[in-house]
Structure formats: C-alpha cells, structure tokens
Amino acid sequence: MLSALTQLLIFQLAGEVVARGLALPIPGPVLGMLFLFIALMLRQGPDKELQTTSQNLLQHLSLLFVPAGTGIMVHLHRVADEWLPLLLSLLISTVATLVVTALVMKLCQRAPTAPGEAP
Questions:
Q1: pLDDT digit string (tens) for 74-115?
Q2: Counting beta carbons within 10 angstroms of the beta carbon of residue 18, is it exposed (0 to 12), middle (13 to 18) or buried (19 or more)?
Q3: 3-state DSSP call for residue 75?
Q4: Are 15 and 28 in contact (CB under 8 A)?
Q5: 3-class SS at 76?
Q6: What are phi and psi of 75, to 5 degrees?
Q7: How far apart are CA 110 and CA 33, in angstroms?
Q8: pTM score above 0.70
C-alpha cells in the first residue's frame, strides 16, 4: 500500500512541477492524473497493489469533502453576498459538462470498428 500511495503522490508531484514550471493554467493534480493515465496505458493497467489502494481511497472519498464543507460554513457570508455568480457558474458549467459528455458519447458511438471486432 505504501508503494502505491508513493506512486500516486509522485505523479501528483510531477504534475505540480510541470504546471508551475511551465506556468500552465492547468492544476498540477490534473496533469499528474494525466501522467498516471498515460503510464497505466503504457503498462496496460494498474498492478494489484495500486488497484487495491485506489479502491480503498475511493471508499473514503467522502472524508475529503469535510474540509470543503467546513470552508463553506466558515465563509457562508461570502456565499450569501455572491450567490448569483456562484449559481450562474454552477448552472453554466453543469450544462457545458452535459453537452460535451453527450457529444463525446455520440462521437464514440459513431467510431468505426476494426474488422473482426464486435460493433
């Protein structure tokens, strides 16, 4: 478990270093996740230890939302003052996510299959 956690943190660190080093507008953890995805594709999936550790982290994912919820409660007055921009950004981002997801799904359904593959 320790080596799998170390592996996850190294990819996150690599993403942070690249994002800050190149002054990219993409968060470091997102780049780290992209690097991890590429590494997993190259080695054709995660090993058993990484898979088990990831599942354990996902089971306790709700604990990671406690600091965010606490922050909202501490700054509730700011949320009350800026409710309209927050509401609009939530609505617009939700609609944009749904539209992009639908378009990607439609594109994937149209993708031609290779000979010998099931449609």
A1: 888 988 899 999 999 999 999 999 999 999 999 888 866 666
A2: middle
A3: coil
A4: yes
A5: helix
A6: -105, 35
A7: 27
A8: no
Report the distance separating Cα 115 and Cα 97, nearest Å: 33
Per-chain mean pLDDT for the chain: 87
> Do residues 12 and 28 make contact, with C-beta atoms less than 8 angstroms apart?
yes
What 8-state DSSP symbol labels residue 100? H
Q: Which residues of 31-51 are buried (b: 16+ CB within 10 A; e: fewer)?
A: bbeebbeeeeeeeeebeeebe
Distances (CA, A) of 69 to 30, 60, 65: 22, 16, 6
> Which residues have C-beta within 8 Å of that of residue 27, sequence separation ≥ 6?
15, 19
Structure tokens at 27: 């968060």
Tokens 């593959």 belong to which residue? 117
Q: How far apart are CA 86 and CA 90, in angstroms?
A: 6
Tell me how far apart the alpha carbons of residues 94 and 91 are, in angstroms, rounded to a whole number: 5
Question: What gap in Å lies between CA 44 and CA 87, rounded to an integer?
Answer: 41
User: φ, ψ for residue 112 (rounded to 5)?
Assistant: -70, 145
